[in-house]
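Exam revision sheet. Question 4 asks you to relate a sequence to its structure. Input first:
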Amino acid sequence: MPLYDKYDSLGLSSDKQPIVIDIGTAYTKVGFSAETSPRAILPTQVVDPETKQCRRLDASARPSDLYEFLVDFVHHLCFKHLLVSPKDRKFIVVESLLCPTSFRETLAKVLFRHFEVFSVMFAPSHLVSLCCLGLDTALVLDVGHKESVLIPVYQGYPVLHAWQAEPLAGHAVQSSLSSLLKAALGNGGDASLAVVEDLPREVVEDIKVRACFVTRLDRAQQMEEGRDPAPPPDASYREGSVPGFVIPGSVRERAYEVLFQQDNDEVAVPTMVLDAIVKCPIDMRRPLAENILVIGGTSMALGFKARLQSELKHLVQTSKYASKLAVRTFKFHTPPAKENYVAWLGGALFGGTDILNLRSLTKEVYLKKSEVPDWTSLEYNCRDEKTM
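Answer key, C-alpha cells:
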C-alpha cells in the first residue's frame, strides 16, 4: 500500500479537507484548509530527472511546457509534502487578479484531466487576505518576488480601475544587491570580485534576507543628497561551498532602496499607494488610507513598513499630492500570520465555509465545457437578459 494511502486510511488527512495552494513566482505555499499554516513553503521548481537541473515556473512558456511543469509540480506537492492523493479532492487555488488566463486554464486542465480532482475554486489573493482580519475595506499591497501589485478593496469589491502594478519587488532587490556587491568588492581586488561574480541566485537571496534591511527615510535622503551618514557595521558571510567574504554596511543598507527611489516616471512603491488612493472616489479615500494591508515575502524585510509609512507622510505633503489628497493619516494592519502566507491563510479560511461549494468549478462542469470562468471575459460579467 502506498504511503499516501496509509495516510488516508489512518484518518490523518483531516477527512479529505480541501487542499489550498498558493503558487508564487519564487515560492509556493501548500496545505489543508483545516490548518492555520501551510504544511510546506517550497521553491516553485521541479528537478528534471534526466538532467538533474531545476526548472522554475515560467507562466509565459508554451502551453505544453507549462502543462508538463505543473503536472510534475502538483504531483510533487501532493505525494511528497502532503502525502495524499489529489483524486476526488477539493482544491482552492489562491491567485492574483492579474494572473494570466493561460496559466489559470492550464492549471485547471492539469487538475481536472490529469489528477481528476473533484472541484477547484480560484480565490483572488487580495480578497481572501482580508478574510484573515475580518475586513471588507482595505488597500492591499502585495510585494512578492516578481512585482508589487496593489488593489483597493471597498466593501468586499475590488476597485479595479485603481489597481497598480510595478516590477518593484524581491527580484529587483536581488539585482540591486548583486550590482552593489560587485561595485563594493571590486575595489578590494580581483580575489574579492571573483567571489561575487558567480554567486548563485539562492546565495544572493540568502544575503538579502539575512543581512540586508530597509533604512530610515532621513538616512536615505542624506545618501541621495551625497551626504553619506556613518554606515552600519559590516557583516561577514559564509555559507556552504561559497568562499567567505565581508558584506559592507553600505551595501546592506542600500539594497532595498530600489523599491523607494522614484524612476523617470516618478514611480516607486510609496507612490503606488498614493496613486491608487487618488484614483478612488473621494468618499473611499480615508477608509482606504486608514486600512492598509501589506502582504508578500519581500515586505517582511526589517524596517519595510516603518519606511513605507514615513514615505507616505512625506510624499503626501509634496506639491504632487498636496492638492489632490486631503488625507494625512495612514494606518497599517498587522495580520495574524507572517506576510508571506497571509493570502494562503485566507484561502484556508474560505475552505471551511459554504462559499467553497457555491463558488467552486466542479469536474463535471469543466469536462462538459472545458473552460474556466474568468472575470476578464464579458461572457461571465454581463447580466443574463433572460433573467431580467
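Marking note for examiners. Confidence is low (pLDDT under 50) at residues 1-14.
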